[in-house]
Design brief:
Structural class: alpha+beta
Largest sheet: 7 strands, mixed
CATH class of the largest domain: Alpha Beta
CATH topology of the largest domain: Alkaline Phosphatase, subunit A
Number of domains: 4
CATH architecture of the largest domain: 3-Layer(aba) Sandwich
Shape: globular
Oligomer: single chain
Strand content: 15-25%
Distance between the termini: 66 Å
Helix content: 25-40%
Strand order of the largest sheet: 9-16-15-8-14-10-11
Number of helices: 23
Length: 748
Amino acid sequence: MQQEHIIVIILYIFFYDDYTKVVRTAEKLVKNEPLSAHARVESRKNLTKSKTATFSEQVKNLQRQQQSAKLQQTPKYTYRIKANVRGPLDRVSSKVCTFPNTDPFDPDLKKLVKTYPPLDCSANTPNIVYLDVGDVFRVNHSKLDKALSRGQNFSYCWCKEIRRLNGSDKGFEFSRTTELFNESMALKAWQENVVVECFDSSKKVISRSYFPLIRKRVETEAFLDKNYQSHIEINSPLETLSIFMIGIDGMSKQNFERAMPLTRNFLLDKMGAIELYKYNKLAFETFPNVLALLTGHTPEEFYRDWHYNRTEFMDQINEAFLWSDARKLGYRTGMILDCYDITAFHYQKKGFKVSPVDYYQRPTVIASSRDKLMRGNNSNCVGDISEVTQVHDYWLQLARTFGKNRTTPFFGYSFAAHLTHDESDLASKGDEAYLRFLQDLVATGALNNTVLLWFSDHGPRFGPIRESYHGRIETSTPYLFFAFPPWFHRKYPKLIKTLQMNQKRLASHFDVYETLKDLLNFKKEIFNKEPGKLTERGISLFRVVPLERTCANAGIPGEFCACGRFSKVLLSNSLMRQLSRALLDRVNSFISFGISGYHRLDFYEGISADNSSTKDSTNDTDSGRNSSVLIEFRNDESQEPPRIPSDAVNYSTNSSSTVQNQLCAQLSLLGTVSVYYVTNDQLRSSKVKSYRVTIKTLPGLGLFEALVNYEPGKEARVVGDVVRINMYRGQADCVHDPWLRQFCFCVK
């Protein structure tokens, strides 16, 4: 073997993740065969089905075990279930949908991925009061020196309740203060959302400690107990399992593996969690994705059938949410969202006029988020406690209060956006905190009666990774794990077997909604349901999902579908201009189609950003990575009108052209950033060619992406939605409608 071959093998050991792949590569080098990317993919298909850890995984696991020995101590409550591990590429393929199984640690991502140290809030203003056993507040005198200014002494603390303003989901008020204390004070039975303020000798506030608390309410318990008894008598459920949903914003399954390995490994190895390998998002942003997950509907269906207006309160559709169904069955319901302004239910929306669940700690979240003293320079901290930990403590309270008794089931929904919304890599900061939470949750014993749903809404929407080849895949592939109690696996092996079969079938939020409905009701009919049909948009994962299911069958829009293949291509300048013009014209149509207050964007011929350097994948032996899987597209013949939300703000048709010109700047085309040729097994013989096109515009350097169909002799046509894939904060403040903001660059 030549010296350069040995060097190549050494590099493969460092950059690729399978011993067998290294051996296969060595064999090819000995035979002087070309090291094409296609050969690498084929070798992966021929791997043995052993579940030996990869070289890179062993090294990383060893390092993490050494660094986190204390964290890895697992409670005795251990799942003895063999974990599912990701297999070769063909394990997530079917007759119709070939789904991406890209390497989260691909060398191409190395320069784009960032890893951060664990959350550290020690530099913030300390929380000098803590809640002790027996519901007693106590002053931690060891923290006073850090909180006090020179020459000042500690004086006293008092407690105030944080109350929700009637008829508002964005305001709060404080109750009257309690008696003063400087050592301890017993918490009142009726206090739920409280803040404890402490003062120095000059009457200056030196610390605030926030406590979102779970407190049993006599009237609520009586109402829910009655509902539970009715549910048992009328429906005769086989089980009453609590349901706990923990979501993180903007996390692809690949990024979850990169950024949170401790948490992911605990779910798989210690909790026997079942991961959905072919889980596909439904929409660009959080709201429509979680709406489908929690209601089984799209926003458009609520606009049309429920006459819901996004500018009004969401109470009108609250009955459609799973937590409302759960409450009717006697479940205690809770929800906590770590952000008060950018949640799915509050960004450009009013939220809920009446609390949608029994335990709704939004007032505490709002109050603590606006507290400059306790937030300091680290918005992920509330004093010297991380925001993530504070949310987790709340759920641990719920689990300890209701989780051990099957006659007091609960439904909890949690969604964290603060840490990852702007940069998904920041999730690595919370890995150890989430691991501790899972360990503590297991230790409560509540998971003996609970199904844990660990999920994300979509992959990254912005940033360097999103703009890369891998990002075009990751944006459509969120993660989802089901974790059942150990006894459930033994008692209901048929349900588990069906769910494991469906791991490798195409699934979306609609299917998980149907699955959760089955878990809530859990009637004996769950065992007698027929296999799912291609005509059903949502199929419970306790039924067999059709192998030949497509994105169209599953209600997944073509532009977000991860079924298919795509590769970079070398296009003529003429065709590239047509594709780019079609995309910019579609952006123009969004603005001009019934929305009159915006000036039409002008098209100017731009210079390609990187198309000249791309190669046709059929002639490039190193483009195998680009021939992986991406999208299924619609072969519709008619140009569809722009899909403008039914509640989009209508601006006055009387606006003068001067006013229009002052609102949004005209955009010109800076360049065609990338063009990918999209193929699908079902449509290979079609004359219509489909391309995923990304353009960059001025001013604002906006990056817009869409699927564009082209047939020789006809005009190029945009299929589905246009999405903006870079951030535009501060560019569109003159526009209030959230859908239109992405297209506007304000003149002033």
